[in-house]
């Protein structure tokens, strides 16, 4: 029951954003939004398994540091650097 309540807001937000993209930008944009959201979920689930294995071997203070700063730094680095690496070669 707790998982169900945790997923309600993100799911409703995603559905609302997809509907808004459909009406404002068209069905292709809405489909691209949904595809990217599903890809993001798959990538997050894929990376969470090794992270859980690493975190389980750490002591409590190191685990807190890893799960707070390490995950945030990794996510930010991937969001910023991967976009630059993907878009930079396509610039004229």
Quick overview:
With 92 residues, the chain is an all-alpha fold. It is built from three helices and no strands.
- The end-to-end span amounts to 52 Å
Mean pLDDT: 77
Tally of DSSP β-strands: 0
User: Considering DSSP H and I runs of 4 or more, what fraction of the residues is helical?
Assistant: over 70%
* Global Rg: 17 Å
Structural class: mainly alpha
Number of helices: 3
Which runs of at least 5 residues are low in confidence (pLDDT < 50)? none
Order of helices and strands: HHH
β-sheet strand percentage: under 5%
Q: Could you give a short account of the major beta sheet? A: none
Oligomer: single chain
- Inertia-based shape: flat
Explain this structure:
The chain is mainly α. It has three helices and no strands. The radius of gyration is 17 Å and the shape is flat.
